Structure formats: C-alpha cells, structure tokens
Amino acid sequence: MQEPEEKKIALELLETEQAYVNRLHLLDQIFYTELMKEAKNGKTIPEEVVKMIFSNISSIYQFHSKFFLPELQKRMEDWSCNPRIGDVIQKLAPFLKMYGEYIKNFDKAVELVTVWSEKSPPFQELIADIQKRKVCANLTLQHHMLEPVQRIPRYELLLKDYVQKLPPESPDRDDAEKALEMIFMVAKHSNAAIAEMERLQNLWVVYQRLGLEDDIVDPSNELIKEGPIQKISTRNNSTSEKYLFLFNNMLLYCVPRVIQVGAEFQVHLRINVDSMKVRELNDAQFPNTFLVSGKQRTLELQAR
C-alpha cells in the first residue's frame, strides 16, 4: 500500500522537527551554556554579550523539545486511528510569536560574534573548539544561529503542501486550513518585526549624521527622502550647495559641514510639513527650481 501524500508530509514535518530540536539543543545547551560558563569564570567576555548573542533561544528550545516535538510524535504514532496534525499546529502557532525577538536581534547577534572573536582570543578559541565537534557537522556557529530564522517559513511551506494534498473529505481539513492561516500571520508578524528594526536602524544613522539634535530625534519619525539641493540667492544670482531631509512631519534644510567630526550636517532650518507649501517656478536661468515656504521663511531651491 502506498502511503497517502498527506502522511508523507506529516512525517517530513516530524523528521525536520527532530533535526531542528537537535540544532536548538546545540545552540542552547552547548554553545550558550559553555560560553556563559566561560563568561562567569574567565571574564573573557561579558555575560551581557553572551545573553545578547543568544537572545531568547532557551525559551524557543524548551518549547520545541518539551511541547511541540512530543505532541507531534504522539500524533504520528496514532496516525492510523487519528490522521490529523492541524489541531496540534494550531496550539503551536501562538507561541511562534516569541521568534519575533530572536529574529529582530539576529543581525546584531551575528555582528557581536564577529566583533568579540576579534577582540577576545579565548572566546574565539572556545567557539572554534565547539565547531570542531561532530555534533556541529563542520558548520559555524553563525550557520546554526540562522536555523530559527528559517524555521517559520519552513512550517508555512510544509503546511501549505499538506493542505493541498488533503482529500476534500479529510477530517483534518478545517483545522489544517486554520493552522495555515495562523502560521501565515506569525510569518507576517516576524517580517514586520524585521522591517521595523531596519527602519529604526536607518533612522538612527540619519540622526547621527545630523548631530543627534534633541528636538529632532524621535523614533516615530519616518524619513521619506534625502538629497543634495542648490540654494538660489536672488541677490547675486548664484547658487550654493545645501542638503534636504524630508520626514513625514518636517523638512530639514541643512548645510554640509566642512570638517565632518561627529555630524555630517548642520541643521539651518526646519519647516513643519503641515504648514508647508511647495510651488514650481519657471525660471529660464535656473531650470528645475521651486519655492518651499513655511511659517518661518521661504527658500528658492534648484534640484539637479
């Protein structure tokens, strides 16, 4: 008898979950535990750094090894009398939101491994020693750290396949479709977490270039566009190089600093967007010019 397609996929889910739990065990019980021991004893790396590298991997490991894997194993043993996994995955889905923290922290964590490997030879030696062990399968710590980031998309693909292969009359259809929807929402949630992290990182870089002026630094701001611009002086018919940052709530009119120590620009003027007017000009001498006027003052500017 040929195994039904949906059972093959359910078995693949179980097998990949088993391998995944082994990988989480390696990250949490070996890398994290041994590096933490080294941090406490040898003081070669601060405990805080080790915690930042591994984020909430312990919670993720506990959840998969103590709950999800045993539930799946039990279900697959009973497959002949209860051929379904949709309800088990529905129980799993809400807990996957804890991946948001791990994923958001991932780039920073990988960067910390690189920085501290250069800074602390004992740290690098310990990692190299663990990587030589059979359990690491010739792969680096960074490679293993990527596994949780890739796990939710993997669930989504397997479950999509499972739902497609289910016969229309299957008792698992409703549960499996609902489970797929929940996993899809979690995947969206972690993508949103990454996008938000990137937005804040980019915003912070812009604030540093502006010299971290107190009244400008606000995490809710959104940078829409930035770029060089020419300021037209009508008095002597000349132009000078300036720079604009357009946020959702304000336009910053800046002057590039000649000596770029610290900040790259000096903010000369800010115009609030809600009272700002922009008008194109037809000037034969200066093409691509426009007027920007706010409560404070009006600027005549020329784009490239």
TrEMBL record:
Please report the stretch or stretches of sequence annotated as the PH domain. Answer: 222-304
- Its domain of life reads Eukaryota
Any transmembrane segments, and where? Answer: none
Q: Name one GO cellular component term.
A: cytoplasm
GO process annotations (BP): cytoskeleton organization; filopodium assembly
Coiled coil regions in record: none
A molecular function (GO) held by this record is: guanyl-nucleotide exchange factor activity
Residue ranges constituting the DH domain according to the UniProt record: 5-193
UniProt-annotated location(s): Cytoplasm, Cytoskeleton
Q: Which InterPro entries does the entry mention?
A: DBL_dom_sf, DH_dom, FYVE_RhoGEF_PH, PH-like_dom_sf, PH_domain, SOS1_NGEF_PH
Q: Which UniProt keyword terms apply here?
A: Cytoplasm, Cytoskeleton, Metal-binding, Phosphoprotein, Repeat, Zinc, Zinc-finger
**Entry's PROSITE patterns?**
DH_2, PH_DOMAIN
Against PANTHER family, the record matches this protein to: FACIOGENITAL DYSPLASIA PROTEIN (PTHR12673), FYVE, RHOGEF AND PH DOMAIN-CONTAINING PROTEIN 2 (PTHR12673:SF82)
The protein's name is FGD2 protein
Provide the species name: Eolophus roseicapilla (Galah cockatoo)
